Fold:
Amino acid sequence: MPSFPITRLRRLRSTPTLRRLVRETRLSVDDLIYPMFVRYGSKARIPIKSMPGQHQFSVDLLVKEAERVVKLGIGAVLLFGIPRTKDPLGKSGYSKTGVIWKAIKALKKALPELCIITDVCLCEYTSHGHCGVVIKSGKEFTVDNDETLDLLSKMALVHAQAGADVVAPSDMMDGRVGAIRDTLDGHGFENVVIMSYAAKYASAYYGPFRDAAGSAPKFGDRRAYQMDPANVREALREVALDIEEGADIVMVKPALAYMDVIRAVKETFEYPTACYNVSGEFAMVKAAAAKKWIDEKRVVMETLTGFKRAGADLILTYHAPDAAKWMKSYKS
Ligand code: PBG
Ligand code: ZN
Structure:
């Protein structure tokens, strides 16, 4: 039992002003990155069923939506491409006529201050939906690590040439951060930042995203290259390798079920640490809120604050525009 009366702990919580004065964690719009889906075509704004409020935008309407988001104070977006055509090598992902190329160009022109981050992975562009080059033999398949590195490097370079500020490799191949860094530096893009999905788990929470991006694997799963949800020490090894290879920002993904991983990564490396509040986490909140089982605003703000308290400096979240609005009025 504590030797002081309980009021000693409660005293500092007794008024909103006192609570504000002693608050340890402060969420800011500066922490938020908004993931957006850009598709081929024009005048398209297609709702993503399992992610209420999120859409696939054609480039023209993506720019409009980005303008709205910037007005709310959000400084960075993460772009995923949905191409017209897919093939086994994901060629549309590193083409200079592809949807991401056009999106970066258009956003940079309309919103020069907006920080553009691009997801660098093959799965959105490959016909089989895997994150790398697949070698099949009968029912078995493997992903060719080194061949994939060449394509990822090419993709990162094309994004940089279009004007991306940050490239974010999400494939989990070994050595991709080093390969991308070399390629970028070799072409004069020393200033392009690498945010690596360093500790990315093989998670069921990506379900809605795979609808959103049409990137579900046609066979097998991603367990051979994404991490086992049971492991945290392995996450630290993954992060250490990515930092050695040149990652500037390291990410933990998903976020909610991995708060201990966020904390461990932050305390071990003291690097800018991002967490990805993924599609399934978003969908659960939206579904419960639609049934009025939870107070959406309070749950979202509490969750995002929790990420920061755990050690995240940057938060990738589909709630970003709502949270930016709520931050202006939120009192806890
Ligand atoms: C592509 C990628 C995925 C996500 C981000 N980049 C899907 C996956 O790895 O299956 C998931 C994002 C989310 O669920 O919100 N590699
Ligand atoms: Zn992928």
About this structure: The pocket of zinc ion (ligand 2) is lined by residues 121, 123, 131, 170-171 (CB under 6 Å).
